[in-house]
Amino acid sequence: MISTDAFKITLKDLRLLSRDRRALVILVAMPMVIIAIVGSSTGRLRANREQSRLGLTIEVADFDQSEIARRLAGFLASYEPIKVRRAVISNRTDALTLERLQTEPPAGEIDMRLVIRPGFESRIRELSTTLLTSPDESTRKEGLANVNLALISNETAADPMMEGLAKSLVKLSLQNAVLPIRAEKVPFFRGAARDSVVPVAWEQTAAAKPGPTDTGNRVYQFFIPSYTVLFVFFLVNIMGRSFLGERDMGTLRRLRIAPISPVAILVGKTLPFFILSLAQTIILMVSGRLLFGMSWGPQPWLLIPIMLCTSAAATALGLMFSTLAKTESQVSSFGNLILLSSAGISGCLVPRAWMPPMSQKISLFTPHAWALDAYSELLTKEMPRMATITQSCGMLLLFSTVFFVVGLYRFRADG
């Protein structure tokens, strides 16, 4: 019987795999370490904004306490991508506090800090009519410092896109804020200043906007599935070395001579790694939930078919590769080339949405991409579409079938 023969081979290989406990621990520990490192280094920047749909959180330290300064903060808070928070200033004449807020980068969820220095309104009133009526002209030479403003980024290595967005919105808010002063010098602007709708006090605006409900855990919704898929397919190398070792010891030849069908041999050789792959995935998903607060989506039971189909595709690819590789160097070189190139193009390392359209289309030729689509649909959507998950699982099973058939053909051809 095929099932009995395959079962015996599976038990034998499971006993062999269980002897190398250090390798099994590393197989699970390595993805967890990488997920923790990468997730913690990028989570603050991405996760909260995805959850709250806000672009930037800006802390405003108002040392001027003038009407124009309040208008500036109010107009800044009126922009949809901006959430404004007020810095606590016990004494606005304290030079040490001013110096600290201008030099120390903001921490936590604050992306940028806007410091409105003392004498801000006075400096605005000193500007010539030309500078007041020409956007960007007043800050062209010395930047925001020319009008007693300072913008400090949270990041040690500042993000140019973040800084550019913040500066542009501050300058636009400044143009609206100085309308009363502009109207005093240019009669043409009196109507605009009179009709200017001053936003609600920015302290109220900031309080009215809902804050993030997820403090960085959402980033793991991407990293844990991505690196799970990446390391599940790392079994290709392990399977290649296992087949190569049995071929060198003559075990594989004895199995060929025995009255066992080639299908039973390959099924028996593949099942242990399929079980190992499932165990690895389950441990990573459970650890992601317990350690990183990752959500399993609105329908957690859908993880089962996704994990089964992904593991089937990974082990079938490992089987096909094992029948093609002939030497240890081939397993190492070609195995790593296949794994890293497919992981890079599929979206395991960076989101596919960041890739060029052509790269996104090419990625669909890898099983990794279909597995990631299924995980993404379940873990990031409030109402996951069954059609998308079913299609992804179907494509994974198609990859599994093709890989197994090619592996079976190569195995028979070598016999």
Tally the helices: 19
What's the alpha carbon Rg, rounded to whole Å? 30 Å
Number of strands: 4
Strand-pairing-aware structural class = mainly alpha
Write the layout of secondary structure elements.
Blueprint (H helix, E strand, L loop, with lengths): L1 H18 L1 H32 L3 E7 L4 H11 L4 E5 L8 H9 L8 E5 L3 H7 L2 H5 L15 E5 L6 H18 L1 H7 L4 H6 L6 H7 L11 H13 L2 H15 L1 H7 L4 H31 L10 H22 L3 H19 L10 H7 L3 H14 L5 H29 L1
Parallel strand pairs: 1-2, 1-3
Antiparallel strand pairs: 3-4
Helix pairs in contact: 1-14, 2-11, 2-14, 3-7, 3-10, 11-14, 11-18, 12-15, 12-16, 14-15, 15-18, 15-19, 16-18, 18-19
What attributes characterize this protein structure?
415 residues; D-Maltodextrin-Binding Protein, domain 2
Description:
This protein is mainly alpha-helical and 415 residues long. The protein folds into 2 domains: 2-46 and 217-414; 55-208, 3-Layer(aba) Sandwich (D-Maltodextrin-Binding Protein, domain 2). The chain has helices spanning 2-19, 21-52, 67-77, 95-103, 120-126, 129-133, 160-177, 179-185, 190-195, 202-208, 220-232, 235-249, 251-257, 262-292, 303-324, 328-346, 357-363, 367-380, 386-414; strands spanning 56-62, 82-86, 112-116, 149-153. It has a 4-stranded mixed beta sheet, sandwiched between helices. Helix 3 links the parallel strand 1 (56-62) and strand 2. Helix 3 packs across helix 7. The longest helix has 32 residues, at 21-52. It is elongated, with a radius of gyration of 30 Å. Mean pLDDT is 77; it is low at 43-54 and 203-216.
